[in-house]
Amino acid sequence: MRNVSPPTRMLLCVLCMIALHLLLPLAVVSNWILFLFGIGLIAFGLVMAFGAEGQFRQRNTTVDHLGEASKLVTDGWFKYSRNPMYLSFLLTLLGSWLTPGSLSPLILIPIYVLFTEQWHILPEEKRLGRAFGKGYDSYRGRTRRWM
């Protein structure tokens, strides 16, 4: 499962959330405000994801979660979060939970965060520390992991 790309894992999570909502809809609290807020989170998450990916592509560094970065990107979306792509996936999942309005899919969000940190973020931080040394340490000191 570690080799599954983060966007693919997020999409699988969304599908599982839909299944949980349909098969085990605990405490449905749906209303139009939650629906619109959920759609907004999904839209913002997608804008953030494509924006952060675009920053990597502009600087000719890898987007691959298993690849070696050739440049340290610290501006744009990365000025506010060291992991804006993972944050965008989290926002998309939160929106995917709010939109249908049942509580059962919520269980997948902390599981997603836990596995993302363990399988992707921590190994990436080690690779970036080795590759960029003090520059990355300085960046880590001034920018939060998630937000």
Task: Describe the fold and architecture.
The chain has one domain (29-62, 71-142). The protein has 4 helices and no strands. The longest helix has 35 residues, at 108-142. Helix 1 runs antiparallel to helix 4 and helix 3 (84-98) runs antiparallel to helix 4 (108-142). It has helices spanning 6-23, 32-58, 84-98, 108-142. With 147 residues, the protein is mostly helical.
Mean pLDDT: 94
Report the sheet with the most strands, covering strand number, pairing sense and barrel closure: none
Order of helices and strands: HHHH
Number of domains: 1
Principal-axis shape? elongated
Proportion of residues in extended strands: under 5%
- The termini sit apart by 25 Å
What is the radius of gyration?
A: 16 Å
Structural category: mainly alpha
Tally of separate helices? 4
Q: Portion of residues in helices?
A: 55-70%
The count of strands amounts to 0
Oligomeric state of shown chains:
single chain
| Low-pLDDT regions | none
